[in-house]
Amino acid sequence: MHIIVDDNVPLAEEFFSELGEVTCMPTREITNAVLKDVDMLICRSTLRVDQALLEGTRVRFVGSPIIGTDHADLEWLAANDIHFTNAPGCNADSVVDYVLSSLWHLAEQEGLDLQLDRRFGVVGAGQVGSRLVKRLESLGAEVLVCDPPRAALEGQSDERPEKSRFVDLDELVAECDVICVHTPMVTGGEHPTHHLINAERIRAMKPGSVLLSAGRGGCVDTAALKQRLKEQADLLTVLDVWENEPDIDAELSALVDIATPHIAGHSLDGKMQGTEIIYQQACRHFGLPARRKLGQLKPDPWLRKLVLTGWAPPEEALGLCVRACYDVRRDALGLRRYQRRFGNAEGFVRYRREYPLRREFSTLRVELKKNARELREVLEGFGFSRVKLVSK
């Protein structure tokens, strides 16, 4: 079996070499001609998987170790007996880390505390949104959620474990101080999401509120957002996803507080988990045993432990842990630097392709003095799951 893998997929040879011959190559080199005698394709969202790419090839299995499926023509693949699978949830924690790092940075930028007594709105309660809701609630924040399909499925039962409640989008926009958008791109059906955050809703946002978008670029009307920022400049904004990627609106990217090139889910941990999920799916599809496990292959993080004394002020300690593990400012500065060097679109693509190593909050071990129980609760709420109280 011959397997072509996007060279941005980590641990590809370690996982797939037992299934056949593995060839890793850049996305731009994966063409119909290259795939003629290939049996399996493993690619990321930067490759359009459709008739033009696969017609006349031997490919019968396509795996994308990512959450989304926007890049794949699922109807054509199914009609031509080509199995497609993705990895929903693989990098959801990475995106939540991105959100919390961004909110922390905005709080520092504005000279505020994190203000968890503010009302948070989460638009889209899928893999990312639901995990964000749980972390915010564990920190004591009030959260409103807009997700009509999930609301219909779950209802408003008092037995729901979450303290959050489902509301319609206009109520969420009117009531919330922080709005986080994590919806997929849906262009048809009962609940389309294209320009879900439209001009009217952008105008309705309260001055001083935060808009953060890390789902799909087309879910926010970026022209309307740019107009408000130019006219009033009274919103704090974080955009990781954009309309017309990679040729994004350069004027808008200069106006927002944090602009990053669709990398919220680009932690090494999320990517590796995605590779393992696709490997398991491939083994299942071809009737082979899945012998390899991520725990056997995952590298140790370069920063393994932080030790904090009982004198550490909670906000300073939290900020130290966030910045040590993932500081979103690195990516915001990186995008601007690459855009200056290579131009708008090429800078966007290059930074993604050359993305620096990043680990998730959950990989960092934090040791605290036993009298720092309150700080432990805050750190664990943020996602630092390896927090230990020590006596010395």
The termini sit apart by 56 Å
- Determine the number of helices (DSSP H or I, runs of at least 4 residues): 16
**How many domains in all?**
3
- CATH third-tier fold name of the largest domain: Rossmann fold
Largest sheet: 7 strands, parallel
Summing up helix and strand content along with how strands pair, one would put the structural category as alpha/beta
The mean pLDDT is: 92
| CATH homology-level superfamily of the largest domain | NAD(P)-binding Rossmann-like Domain
* Mass-distribution shape: globular
CATH architecture of the largest domain: 3-Layer(aba) Sandwich
Helix content, binned percent: 25-40%
Q: Quick summary of this structure?
A:
NAD(+) binds at residues 127-128, 147, 183, 240, 265. By secondary structure, the chain is an alpha/beta fold. Helices cover 38% and strands 16% of the residues.
Which terms summarize this structure?
392 residues; alpha/beta; Rossmann fold; Ribosomal Protein S8, Chain: A, domain 1; seven-stranded parallel sheet; five-stranded parallel sheet; 16% strand; globular; D-isomer_2-hydroxyacid_DH
